[in-house]
From TrEMBL:
Residues 1-30 form the signal peptide. Keywords: Signal. This is Uncharacterized protein.
C-alpha cells in the first residue's frame, strides 16, 4: 500500500512539473504617471522580493513601471496609487499558488526629489 501511495505522489509531482515546464516564460510591463510637485516621496512596497529602483528625470511627475516575468500564470495590473507624498505599490503577482511570478519596479521622480522606500532612504540614480 505504501508503494502505491508513493508512486501516486511521484506521479503527481512529475505531472505538475511537466505542465509548468510546458509553459513558456512571459515578460510583460505596465506603467502609469502621476503629476507631482513635492520634494520628498515615500514609497511603500509590501513585497520585499520585488525590488524598487529610483531614477530622476526632468518632468514634474512620478512615473512607475512594473516589469514582470511569469510562468504558468498571467500578471495582474498592480493597484498602485499616489496619495500626497506617498506612493503605494501593489503586486502584479496575485495570490495564486500555481505558476511563477517575479517582478521589479522602476520609479522615476523629478530632479532633486528625496525618496524613501519603506522608510529607508533610496539612492536616486
Amino acid at each position: 500500500m505504501n508503494t502505491l501511495l508513493r508512486a501516486c505522489a511521484v506521479g503527481t509531482v512529475l505531472a505538475a512539473g511537466l505542465s509548468l515546464t510546458a509553459c513558456s516564460s512571459s515578460p510583460s510591463s505596465a506603467q502609469q504617471s502621476f503629476p507631482y510637485a513635492g520634494s520628498a516621496l515615500d514609497v511603500i512596497n509590501d513585497n520585499a522580493n520585488m525590488p524598487v529602483t529610483v531614477t530622476a528625470g526632468a518632468a514634474r511627475e512620478v512615473a512607475v513601471e512594473v516589469r514582470t516575468q511569469t510562468v504558468g500564470r498571467s500578471p495582474q495590473t498592480p493597484a498602485w496609487s499616489l496619495n500626497g507624498d506617498t506612493l503605494i505599490l501593489g503586486t502584479p503577482c496575485g495570490a495564486s499558488w500555481v505558476g511563477y511570478c517575479e517582478a521589479s519596479f522602476a520609479v522615476r521622480v523629478p530632479d532633486g526629489t528625496t525618496v524613501r522606500v519603506n522608510g529607508q532612504e533610496a539612492v536616486v540614480g
